[in-house]
Design a protein that fits this description.
CATH superfamily of one domain: YaeB-like
Radius of gyration: 18 Å
Strand order of the largest sheet: 3-4-7-6-5-8
Distance between the termini: 43 Å
Shape: globular
CATH class of one domain: Mainly Beta
CATH architecture of one domain: Beta Barrel
Length: 160
């Protein structure tokens, strides 16, 4: 459970207290990586398995090999942005225009491509996911516009 009682002290005044719960839907299984400073706009080539917990396995229906996904994970090592550091300046961009780990919330929004699916076991094997082994998965979404339905490779959209 996350208890959100941050005082914004801005022009609009403080936000009312809000409490909400985020439950992981699965876990990332990734090979250990060497500790190295990633390049700016680093595009990982690593492979990982996304294991979904039993209640969420049915959510794999409609996914297919080759599909690009957005994978949201909880990243507890993210350092919160404090004070003016995230606001940007003439010399530096703000936190929302960067890929820094210093984020307002410990959530990573990562892109990956589906290599194989094993719906019976609740496994998605993906490529390009820059996540640590054991990272809790919060959500998975196709990397398409929400107004478009998913199409398999070679399939054409039928007119309405």
């Amino acid at each position: 459970m996350i208890d959100f009682r941050q005082d914004t002290s801005g022009e609009r005044g403080p936000l009312p207290p809000v409490v909400f719960t985020i439950q992981p839907i699965g876990i990332v299984h990734a090979a250990p990586r060497r500790a190295a400073r990633p390049q700016k706009y680093f595009v990982p080539k690593g492979r990982a398995a996304l294991e979904l917990f039993r209640p969420y396995i049915a959510g794999l229906q409609g996914l297919y090999e080759g599909l690009d996904l957005w994978v949201l994970i909880y990243h507890p090592l993210s350092a919160p942005v404090l004070g003016e550091r995230g606001q940007g300046s003439q010399a530096h961009v703000g936190v929302f225009a960067s890929t820094t780990l210093e984020r307002p919330n410990p959530i990573e929004f990562l892109r990956a491509k589906v290599l194989t699916l094993d719906p019976a076991q609740g496994l998605l094997h993906v490529e390009g996911l820059d996540a640590d082994d054991g990272a809790p998965i919060l959500d998975i979404r196709p990397a398409t516009s929400p107004r478009h339905r998913l199409l398999r490779a070679g399939e054409e959209m039928s007119p309405r």
